[in-house]
């Protein structure tokens, strides 16, 4: 099977019409999702890149789907803005389209929400080769079926994204990170649950098993100092990371998974954590107050997740990345409408 | 047994068919449109909704799910000869779990009720459409309702984590879950905003947020609407992210004054900015905001010193719609969106159109997210005035699309704006919507006649 490298949305349409089965790839940072299976043509979108529009005052940008996240973030940083959902693997070459298809958000999602909260619009090529637009380029919009939200986590099931619009926010001026260690998981969880209910506006709230909490604050210098003090009154002195940028970049690039053969994302909740901690998983970290787990695993760990009936997505190291595969009349109907010939993954 | 007999057997004593009983369901908040349904069904449990939808499917009877009927786009307008499935009796909060920060609710629960129940835990439900004391979450989900805080917090779709849906063919599907993160396609996110065309949500899982610790609310008065709009740009350029920024024009201010005596100064443009967050951060932001507003040419600045003063500032804004209603026998509300930097241009053009059509237009809008709310005042008893008001409203919609915005920020397309869909979407976009609809509802029973313009269907 050839590798197709479209350079324009029209070339994506041609490719879709020409091949019965295709798999899109951006930066290839999540190989379990982007590696072509038997009979699939690889649609390499790395040449469909570039920022199309960015008006800082609007808090909105539009870019081709193959644009590396890092490239976008550089442009945003120049205007004191950022992507608050903190797309993972940016430092490894992740693209906007791949991030949306995988449905991934990083540790800073804790403050303002995840990918689904910042995606405003899409143009994609459906299974019939038609160019379809959903959503828009303004921060508020309720017109028409929201195809952009359908793309989140879709693994490309409904079409090939060519253009995406996102909301962005002003970047916090100053940041500090507090790391506190507890005696055991139980104590760490108790603190986590307490923190989740407080109006602290933390940028990040991570649990690193067995018993470490990492909290990141952002804002005006004086306010951050005062709030850090308040957190320490609440949790104890802990360890303060003043130069914390590199640390969180490492976390969002999932550096802690490097040595693991399998990388898996597991939706969670604080009450699920004891159950997850009983499974044979490798290096791992719970982001956003325990709402999502990124873990390294072996085949054994993956099997345990399945047996426990816990939905998950494998980013690296498995043939079938999504568990469970989408089912039910609703998915089937939407799939049939947009990809009737089954050119794309899933279903 | 025929359809109605079967429906009555399913819902004993809870199927309305009498003239007088049906009358209240003939229209929603878009009162210019009226349709007489065949019957109104009043289910009390989700199994009954399922049963009713299955009957409709079996007999080919169109159905419209309805909450409190506050839709401003005619979204819950009945279909002639069809059934209204009124969900108000399904008004239980099934579970409120503060640790998980979620609420699981039935579709007939009123929006504000969730925040009231969550308050003892320091939590709240963020989307706050002006209709929140009345409108139901089922309706909010169907129309992706917004409110005054969308720039920072998003719309209903961003706060729905999971759904149980009865599809138009009478199957039950679960979409999403309880976590803020999921795996697989975001089908629940897609369902929100499809205006009831793809099924009826019978159970909704909502995310709850910790209530902000501190607020800082400022009222700024300007000699022109444009100056108020420019102030919003300045706030954004200063790197601030207020929870809400609202603007009212002279006509709305006067109306609000008459209605609730909010104590607003009589000026051309009034801006409300509200910061929220941890007290130390809000204090720092307030300093920046004060500097920005001082330089923005404000005639007067008022800072709320306590919660009572904050409520006083909001009182007039919240009452604006109904207050404007007193100025005129009838009005139409539009809710088009423009990019924030084009606000001034949009407002100038609306004022020009108002003069051209000889109809007064009051402006109240969510400035932070560019969501306009022009209220077109008219008198339905004067021949031709409704038509003129509709034509003016249509011009405003076209203007919004031309400036790179949207037909609707939060009210939805409904019946009212479906004719304008081709202005915003290409034929292929509409065809894709049409095909999704057809795949899930081949008989076109669920909320027939909404969102999708007839022309596409004819051409498909």
Automatic annotation (TrEMBL), chain A:
It comes from the Bacteria. It holds the Pfam family FAD_binding_4. PROSITE patterns: FAD_PCMH. Gene3D superfamilies: 3.30.465.10. Keywords: FAD, Flavoprotein. InterPro entries: FAD-bd_PCMH, FAD-bd_PCMH-like_sf, FAD-bd_PCMH_sub2, FAD-linked_Oxase-like_C, Oxid_FAD_bind_N. The keyword rRNA processing does not apply. GO terms for molecular function: catalytic activity; FAD binding. Residues 1-171 form the FAD-binding PCMH-type domain. PANTHER family: D-LACTATE DEHYDROGENASE (PTHR11748), GLYCOLATE OXIDASE SUBUNIT GLCE (PTHR11748:SF103). This is Glycolate oxidase FAD binding subunit.
UniProtKB/TrEMBL annotation, chain B:
Residues 33-211 form the FAD-binding PCMH-type domain. It comes from the Bacteria. One of its GO terms (molecular function) is FAD binding. The keyword Flavoprotein applies. InterPro entries: FAD-bd_oxidored_4_C, FAD-bd_PCMH, FAD-bd_PCMH-like_sf, FAD-bd_PCMH_sub1, FAD-bd_PCMH_sub2, FAD-linked_Oxase-like_C, FAD-linked_OxidoTrans_Type4, Oxid_FAD_bind_N. Keywords: FAD, Flavoprotein, Oxidoreductase. Its cofactor is FAD. This is Glycolate oxidase. It comes from Thermus arciformis.
């Amino acid at each position: 099977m050839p590798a197709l490298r479209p350079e324009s949305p029209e070339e994506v349409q041609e490719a879709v019409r020409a091949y019965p089965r295709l798999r899109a790839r951006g930066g290839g940072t999540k190989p379990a999702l982007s590696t072509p299976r038997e009979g699939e043509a690889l649609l390499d979108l790395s040449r469909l890149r570039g920022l199309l529009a960015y008006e800082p005052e609007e808090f909105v940008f539009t870019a081709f789907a193959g644009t590396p996240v890092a490239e976008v973030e550089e442009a945003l940083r120049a205007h004191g803005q950022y992507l608050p959902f903190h797309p993972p693997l940016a430092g490894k070459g992740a693209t906007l389209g791949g991030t949306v298809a995988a449905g991934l958000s990083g540790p800073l999602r804790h403050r303002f929400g995840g990918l689904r909260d910042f995606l405003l619009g899409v143009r994609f090529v459906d299974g019939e080769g038609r160019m379809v637009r959903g959503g828009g380029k303004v921060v508020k919009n309720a017109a028409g079926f929201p195809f952009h939200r359908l793309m989140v986590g879709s693994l490309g099931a409904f079409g090939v994204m060519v253009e995406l619009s996102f909301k962005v926010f002003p970047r916090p001026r100053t940041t500090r990170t507090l790391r506190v260690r507890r005696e055991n998981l139980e104590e760490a969880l108790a603190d986590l649950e307490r923190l989740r209910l407080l109006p602290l506006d933390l940028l990040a709230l991570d649990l690193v098993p067995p018993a470490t909490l990492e909290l990141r604050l952002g804002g005006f210098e004086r306010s951050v100092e005062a709030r850090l003090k308040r957190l320490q009154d609440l949790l104890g002195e802990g360890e303060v990371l003043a130069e914390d940028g590199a640390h969180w970049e490492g976390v969002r690039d999932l550096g802690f998974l490097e040595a693991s053969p399998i990388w898996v994302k597991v939706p969670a909740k604080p009450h699920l954590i004891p159950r997850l901690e009983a499974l044979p998983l490798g290096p791992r970290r719970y982001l956003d107050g325990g709402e999502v787990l990124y873990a390294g695993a072996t085949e054994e760990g993956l099997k345990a997740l399945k047996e426990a009936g816990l939905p998950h997505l494998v980013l690296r190291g498995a043939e079938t990345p999504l568990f469970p595969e989408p089912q039910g009349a609703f998915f089937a109907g939407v799939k049939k409408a947009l990809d009737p010939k089954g050119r794309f993954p899933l279903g | 047994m025929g359809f109605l007999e079967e429906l009555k057997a399913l819902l004993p004593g809870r199927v309305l068919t009498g003239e007088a009983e049906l009358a209240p369901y003939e229209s929603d908040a878009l009162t210019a449109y009226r349709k007489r349904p065949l019957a109104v069904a009043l289910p009390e449990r989700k199994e009954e909704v399922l049963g009713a939808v299955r009957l409709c499917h079996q007999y080919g009877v169109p159905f419209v799910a309805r909450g409190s009927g506050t839709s401003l786009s005619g979204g819950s307008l009945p279909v002639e000869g069809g059934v209204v499935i009124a969900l108000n009796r399904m008004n239980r909060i099934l579970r409120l779990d503060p640790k998980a920060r979620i609420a699981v609710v039935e579709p007939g629960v009123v929006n504000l009720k969730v925040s009231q129940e969550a308050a003892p835990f320091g939590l709240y439900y963020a989307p706050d459409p002006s209709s929140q004391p009345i409108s139901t979450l089922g309706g909010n989900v169907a129309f992706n309702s917004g409110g005054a805080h969308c720039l920072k917090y998003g719309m209903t779709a961003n706060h729905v984590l999971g759904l149980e849906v009865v599809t138009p063919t009478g199957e039950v599907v679960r979409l999403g879950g309880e976590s803020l993160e999921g795996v697989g396609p975001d089908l629940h996110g897609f369902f929100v905003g499809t205006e009831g065309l793809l099924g009826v949500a019978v159970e909704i899982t909502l995310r709850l947020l910790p209530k902000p610790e501190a607020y800082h609310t400022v009222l700024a008065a300007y000699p022109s609407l444009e100056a108020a709009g420019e102030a919003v740009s300045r706030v954004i350029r200063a790197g601030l992210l207020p929870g809400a920024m609202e603007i009212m024009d002279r006509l709305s201010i006067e109306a609000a004054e008459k209605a609730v005596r909010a104590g607003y100064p009589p000026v051309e443009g009034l801006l409300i900015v509200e910061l929220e967050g941890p007290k130390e951060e809000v204090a720092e932001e307030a300093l920046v905001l004060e500097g920005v507003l001082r330089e923005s040419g404000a005639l007067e600045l008022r800072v709320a010193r306590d919660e009572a003063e904050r409520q006083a500032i909001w009182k007039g804004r919240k009452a604006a719609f109904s207050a404007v209603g007193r100025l005129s026998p009838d009005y139409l509300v539009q809710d088009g969106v423009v990019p924030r930097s084009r606000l001034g241009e949009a407002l100038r053009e609306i004022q020009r159109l108002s003069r051209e059509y000889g109809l007064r237009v009051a402006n109240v809008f969510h400035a932070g997210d560019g969501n306009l709310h022009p209220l077109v005042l008219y008198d339905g008893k004067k021949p031709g005035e409704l038509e003129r008001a509709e034509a003016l409203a249509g011009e405003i919609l076209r203007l919004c699309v031309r400036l790179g915005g949207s037909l609707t920020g939060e009210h939805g397309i409904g019946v009212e704006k479906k004719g304008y869909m081709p202005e915003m979407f290409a034929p292929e976009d509409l065809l894709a919507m049409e095909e999704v609809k057809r795949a899930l509802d081949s008989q076109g029973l669920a909320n027939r006649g909404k969102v999708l313009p007839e022309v596409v269907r004819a051409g498909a």
